[in-house]
Each structure stands twice: as structure tokens, then as C-alpha cells.
């Protein structure tokens, strides 16, 4: 193959695909990116066998062909070339080496044949629908922080995406939980999503999707195709195909408290800043912050056996019985960082029961947080 491509186009495409490639691989071909000439363009593909990203970039083809080269190495080379440069990619007759040249720079990289490169065959994808980038981004942004990192409960290592009837409308719902907190976000279900299976999108796929959406226009239409085993996102020139987690997501509805009757209303930014300040004194071992509420007054307290004590008082809206309850400070900050309204409402029951947190600026999201002993 022989092709000439603008550095900026090649770098942008490599930036999207090379992230999928694990830096340490026991299978050499999985360290490589597939480069293939396609008409007036170059197609790049990378995979880790669970997730595959392909992207096409405009290029001038002089000789058709395909090969694979080390993904991170090629990305680093192109990244260090000067802006505005043209890059020439050419393989030798045997297909064992590829020359990357630009200006006076010349690199020879070892190749592996295209035939060795694995292909994640998506099979039949039973459901297809479209969402705006901002809508899909919001579902992910509001829930991804609560994904579990505990490998033993693998079915919690992703976002559960499904449709559900709520308030007389069909909603597309994203849920994530790690057993300590739960995040739920709804979006009006798009045409084509009716009857879709409930699926669990893996954590790595969620992370890559967030980055790709961050590079897109909020109004851009994202195409989503899925079955009960695979999902494919088409974002402009990028196509990402991923296996889904083969497991059953727990019945999260049972965790959401229905009878919490003590409403604590507070200013989100003031509260978040206060939690951040008092938690400075705590050690990583037990980042518990105690909330004592009475007579429209909230007292935040953190006790650290090593460092001392910190307290801060806030004026809040509260007219129920006095209550003292403890939460993990990091979890509180994670949730308040996702909220969009100025006002936040904590629906409390008792010191040992889960608390419901509502966003004053977004009725379509809610959070559940388990208390800590303090």
C-alpha cells in the first residue's frame, strides 16, 4: 500500500482508535492498528476482542493495500510531527515493513499481515435508533460515576440501559450502581427502541463513548444499533462495536426508597464546598462526614483519629425531626457534581436507611446513597 494523508486527519483518527489497544498484550496482533486504503480514504481499525473502533479519514491513495502496525508507536510518531505536515505511508513488496515519512523524518515499522487481524462480527443487531449526542452524553454522564469496579460482581461493571414505562411515556433509562450508591437517568425513548432488550454496556466502552461524544457536536445524531450480545455506535466517521456484559442486572427498583418523608433542601454549591472543606481533615481510610440536621440548621462534622475534627454549619430548609446520618464524603461529592440545579433535595428516613437525592434542575435523574456508621 502507498498513501498520502494530512497529519491532522491521521492524528485525529489514530487518537480515537489507539485508545482501545491495551499497552501490554500477550497477542502481538492486538497491539496493532489495521490500516486499509478505501477509495479516497484510509480506514483504521483497532480492537481488544471486546471492543472495536473503526474510523475513515480522507487520504490520497497511490497504491491500494492493507497492513497492521503498532498502534501506540504510530500514534506517538504522528503526534510529534509538525502541524500541517503531509504523511506518506508505504509498505515494502513483502508487506513486512511500513515506511512512515514526512519532510525529513523517516521511520520504518514492523508490520503484521492484515489476515491475522481479528474481526468482531456484530451479527444481527435487532434494534436501531438515533439520539442526539447531548442526550446520549447526559445519560452516560449522570450515571457512569456509580459503575462498580469490583470484578467479582461483573454484572455491575457497566451501565444498564433499558426502556421502561414512566409517567405514561416510554423512557430510555440508564442505571449504574456499585452497592453503595445508585444513579438513574431517564430520556424520552427514541423511535426504534421499543421492545429492546435490557443491556449492560461495559465500563471501558462507556469511557470510550464519553470521549467520542466529547469530540462531537451536541446536536449531532448518534446511531445506536444493538442486540442482546452486541452494541454499535456510529458517531460521524467513527464506528464503535462492543460486546455487552453477559449477566443479569439486579432489580434496582427495590433499592430506591419510597417512604422517605424527611425533606432536607439545600444549596448545591454551598453544600458541596462545605463537604469538600470538612473532608480535608479525614484520612482515606474512613472518609465519613456526619450530617446533623435540626431547626433549619445543618452541621457537617468529620472526625479523624490522626488529624482532629472539622465542623461547618449551613442554613437549610428542614422542618422534620432531628436526625444524624453519615455518608462517604467522596460519594456525596460525586453526586453533587452531577447535579445541575441550584437546589438539591435529600429525602431522609433514618440513620440506617438509604437516602434519596433529587436534582432541583432535572426531574429525570435521581440518586440513592447508602449511609455510613459515624
Automatic annotation (TrEMBL):
The Swiss-Prot or TrEMBL record annotates one GO molecular function as: DNA-directed DNA polymerase activity
Q: Sorted alphabetically, which keywords does the UniProt record give?
A: Cytoplasm, DNA replication, DNA-binding, DNA-directed DNA polymerase, Nucleotidyltransferase, Transferase
Q: Name one GO cellular component term.
A: DNA polymerase III complex
Q: How does it assemble?
A: Forms a ring-shaped head-to-tail homodimer around DNA.
Superkingdom field: Bacteria
Give the organism, scientific name.
Aurantimonas manganoxydans (strain ATCC BAA-1229 / DSM 21871 / SI85-9A1)
Set out the biological process GO terms recorded for this chain's protein. DNA strand elongation involved in DNA replication
Protein's recorded name: Beta sliding clamp
**SMART domains named among the record's database cross-references:** POL3Bc
Please list the residue ranges annotated as the DNA polymerase III beta sliding clamp N-terminal domain. 1-120
Q: Where is the DNA polymerase III beta sliding clamp C-terminal domain?
A: 254-373
The DNA polymerase III beta sliding clamp central domain extends over 131-251
**Pfam families the record matches:** DNA_pol3_beta (PF00712), DNA_pol3_beta_2 (PF02767), DNA_pol3_beta_3 (PF02768)
The UniProt family comment states:
Belongs to the beta sliding clamp family.
> What does the protein in this record do?
Confers DNA tethering and processivity to DNA polymerases and other proteins. Acts as a clamp, forming a ring around DNA (a reaction catalyzed by the clamp-loading complex) which diffuses in an ATP-independent manner freely and bidirectionally along dsDNA. Initially characterized for its ability to contact the catalytic subunit of DNA polymerase III (Pol III), a complex, multichain enzyme responsible for most of the replicative synthesis in bacteria; Pol III exhibits 3'-5' exonuclease proofreading activity.
* Localization per record: Cytoplasm
Which InterPro entries does this one have?
Answer: DNA_clamp_sf (IPR046938), DNA_polIII_beta (IPR001001), DNA_polIII_beta_C (IPR022635), DNA_polIII_beta_cen (IPR022637), DNA_polIII_beta_N (IPR022634)
Amino acid at each position: 500500500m502507498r498513501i498520502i494523508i494530512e497529519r491532522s486527519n491521521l492524528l485525529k483518527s489514530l487518537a480515537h482508535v489507539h485508545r482501545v489497544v491495551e499497552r501490554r498484550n500477550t497477542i502481538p496482533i492486538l497491539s496493532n492498528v489495521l490500516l486499509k486504503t478505501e477509495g479516497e480514504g484510509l480506514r483504521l481499525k483497532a480492537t481488544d476482542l471486546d471492543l472495536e473502533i473503526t474510523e475513515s479519514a480522507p487520504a490520497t491513495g497511490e497504491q491500494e493495500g492493507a497492513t497492521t502496525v503498532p498502534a501506540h508507536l504510530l500514534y506517538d510518531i504522528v503526534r510529534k510531527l509538525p502541524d500541517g505536515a503531509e504523511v506518506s505511508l508505504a509498505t515494502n513488496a513483502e508487506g513486512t515493513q511500513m515506511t512512515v515519512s514526512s519532510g525529513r523524518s523517516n521511520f520504518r515499522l514492523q508490520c503484521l499481515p492484515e489476515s491475522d487481524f481479528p474481526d468482531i462480527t456484530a451479527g444481527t443487531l435487532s434494534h436501531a435508533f438515533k439520539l442526539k449526542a447531548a442526550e446520549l452524553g447526559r445519560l452516560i454522564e449522570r450515571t457512569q460515576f456509580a459503575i462498580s469496579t469490583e470484578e467479582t460482581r461483573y454484572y455491575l461493571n457497566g451501565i444498564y440501559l433499558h426502556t421502561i414505562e414512566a409517567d405514561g411515556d416510554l423512557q430510555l433509562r440508564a442505571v449504574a450502581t456499585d452497592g453503595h450508591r445508585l444513579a438513574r437517568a431517564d430520556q424520552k425513548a427514541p423511535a426504534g427502541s421499543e421492545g429492546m432488550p435490557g443491556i449492560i454496556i461495559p465500563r471501558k466502552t462507556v469511557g470510550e463513548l464519553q470521549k467520542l461524544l466529547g469530540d462531537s457536536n451536541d446536536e449531532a445524531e448518534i446511531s445506536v444499533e444493538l442486540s442482546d450480545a452486541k452494541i454499535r455506535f456510529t458517531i460521524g466517521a467513527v464506528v464503535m462495536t462492543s460486546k455487552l456484559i453477559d449477566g443479569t442486572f439486579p432489580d434496582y427498583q427495590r433499592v430506591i426508597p419510597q417512604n422517605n418523608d424527611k425533606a432536607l433542601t439545600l444549596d448545591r454549591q454551598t453544600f458541596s464546598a462545605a463537604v469538600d472543606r470538612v473532608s480535608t481533615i479525614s484520612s482515606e481510610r474512613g472518609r465519613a462526614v456526619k450530617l446533623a440536621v435540626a431547626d433549619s440548621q445543618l452541621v457537617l462534622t468529620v472526625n479523624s483519629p490522626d488529624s482532629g475534627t472539622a465542623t461547618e454549619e449551613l442554613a437549610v430548609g428542614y422542618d422534620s425531626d432531628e436526625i444524624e446520618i453519615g455518608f462517604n464524603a467522596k460519594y456525596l461529592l460525586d453526586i453533587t457534581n452531577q447535579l445541575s440545579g441550584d437546589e438539591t433535595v435529600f429525602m431522609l428516613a433514618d440513620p440506617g436507611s438509604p437516602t434519596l437525592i433529587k436534582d432541583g434542575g432535572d426531574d429525570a435523574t435521581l440518586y440513592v446513597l447508602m449511609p455510613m456508621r459515624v
